[in-house]
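Appendix B. Chain record.
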Amino acid sequence: MRVKEIMHHVVKIPFWSSVSEAARIMDEKSIGSVLIEENGRVIGIMTEKDILRKIVAKGKNPDKVKVKDIMNDPVITIDANEDILEASKIMDEKRIRRLIVVENGQIAGKITANSISRNLKYMIVREPQVYTRMEY
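Structure tokens predicted for this chain:
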């Protein structure tokens, strides 16, 4: 199964947006991350986890902190035609839950650990199962 078959759309917000603005957008769209953009170029990603650990846990005011101050960079990408098992391997190695999907040099979407997990059962069913009986 290819990454592009299960990718999601991405939402981009300007780097100068406040964390509270980003959180409102994430809530409205029921998403767990946003890409941070500066001058038409993606410079980072901010997730729910960033808000929790870098704002809430530290007692910071989300109205005063800008997304560029808590975003993660660089953004880790994967080609749209790559296999989802490769995506899973990269996520595991990098200890992340999201990869940005690139197709023809452009951002096409994102893939999440949840989307991989949900689709593995279909992938397993498609693969022929070979069972061998042990000899006694």
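Further analysis of this model is presented in Appendix C.
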